[in-house]
Design brief:
By secondary structure, the chain is an alpha/beta fold. The chain folds into 2 domains: 122 residues, Urease, subunit C, domain 1 (Roll), CATH 2.30.40; 355 residues, TIM Barrel (Alpha-Beta Barrel). The strands form 4 sheets. Strands 1, 2, 3, 4, 5, 18, 19 and 20 form an 8-stranded mixed β-sheet that branches. The radius of gyration is 22 Å and the shape is globular. The relative contact order is 0.17.
Length: 490
Amino acid sequence: MTLKIALSFALAIFALAARAEKIALINGTLINPGTSQIVQNATIVILRDGRIVIGGAKIAAAGDTKTVSMLKDAHVIDCKGKFILPGYIDTHIHFFQSGDLFTRPDVVDLNSVRPYKDEVAWIKSHLDDTFTRYLRSGITAVVDVGGPFWNFEVRRTANTDVQLTISGLAQGSVVTAKAPRVAVAGPLISSVSRPQLDLGDPPIVKIDTPERAREFVRKLAAQNPDLVKIWYIVDKDHPVDSFRPIVRATSEESHAHKIRVAVHATELETARAAVEEGADILVHSVIDKPVDDAFVKLLKNRHIILCPTLVVFERYGRTFSHELNLTPEEKAWGNPEVIASLDVTKIPQNKLPDRIKNALAKPDEALDRIKKTYDVALPNLKTLEDAGVTIAAGTDAGNIGTIHGPALFREFQLMKEAGLTPMQILQCATANAAKLFGGETGAHIGKIENGYLADLVILKSNPLDDIAHASDIDTVIKNGVVYPANSILH
C-alpha cells in the first residue's frame, strides 16, 4: 500500500474509528457454516485494540441478545433482515496471472500482441486493484498456491499494516491494508519445464532429482512460505512413477521445515501417488475417472484437504472458442481491462495461435470437452463431500478467463450442480478454507466466534435459500474495518 493510498484510506475511516473502538452488529441472522449454527436476532461485538485506530480487530462476543449485552460505548450497526457470515476465503489463486488472454504464454503465445514482460509489469502495477476486487466479492482471505519469488512481497504488502503519523490521528496509528489476508507458496516444483514464463524470477521450476528438490525446498523455506507447491504434470514423456521420488523428497524436506505440501494432480493415479508420497493438500479435482473407495479412504486417513477449482476447467476452452459465460458478478466486479482482453475475435487473424484458431473453428468440440470434464469432476466432488473429506473452495483465479475475486461465485454454482447444499458450499468457503489457509491466521478465521478475527460479510438475502444469494453483499468487514460493498471499488 502506498503512503498516498494509506493516507486517503485513513482519513476515510477516521470518523468511524474516532467514535468507537467497539462495533456491535445487531438484529441480523448469524450463520456459522462450520458448525451449521444459525442464530436469529444475533449480536456480534467487535473490539479493536485501544492503542491503535484500526488493526488487531477481533470478535469479542457473538450470540443471541440473551447472551450478548456488550453494547455500551459501541458503534451500533443494525443488520435487521440481513445475514452475517464469516468472510469468504478463496484457497486457490495466482497473483502472477491476471486472468487476461496474455497471462499464460506457455499455453497460447501472444507475445506479438502483448509482450509477456509488459503483462507482468501490468500485473504488478495493479495489485492494489486486484486486492480490492477480492474484498468487493466478500473474500477476506486468499491462498496463492504458486508464483515467482515476488509472491512473498505480495504477501508482505497485503498483510502488513501501515503505521502513520497524521494530524488528527494518534502517534503511530495503524491502518489496515485494503486487501484480503494472503497466504502464499513460492515457485512451483514441476515435472515439466515452462521457459515461456521465465523472466528471471520464474513461477515454475523444473526439478529433475530428489537432491535438487531438497535444495530448492531449503531455498523456499528461507522465505517462510505457507505452502510448498508441486506441479505434478503427467504425459507420455512424464509418467506418474518417474516423478514420485521428487514428490517424496519435496514432502520430506518440507515437513522437516514444518511446511505443508500442496500438489496439482488432476488424474486419479497422479493424485493417489501424490498423497502416498506425502502431500497434505490436493489443489484440483480428479477429472480423468471416478474416484475409487481406496482413494477416498486414503484421503480420509491422511486428513487431506481437497480444493476442487471447478471453474477453471471451463474457462480456457470457453475463452478460446468465444463461448465465455462470465457471471453478472464477474462482469460487474472483475477488472474491465482483463475482461475486454478475453474477446479473441479482436486479435488479428494472422497473430492467433493455432490452439485458438482450432477452438474458434470448432466451438462445439471445446464445449464437449468441458462437459466431459464436469461429468467426472462433479460426481467426484459429491463422493468426497459425502465421505467426509475436507473440501475447501477455490477457483485458480488468474488463469485465462478465471477472474480474480468474483470467480468464486461461479465456483459456488458448479458446487451446487455437483449436489452440495448451500450450507456445505459455505462451509467449504469459510471453516474448511481456513484449514487450508493454515497457520496462526488460519486458526482464527472462517468462523464467527469469540477470539476470531473480525472478517465478516453481510448479505441482503439468505444464502441458505439459494447459494446465488452469497453474492448479494451489503457490507464487508475486514479486520474490523467496515466497507459498504458499493463503495469498495470507488
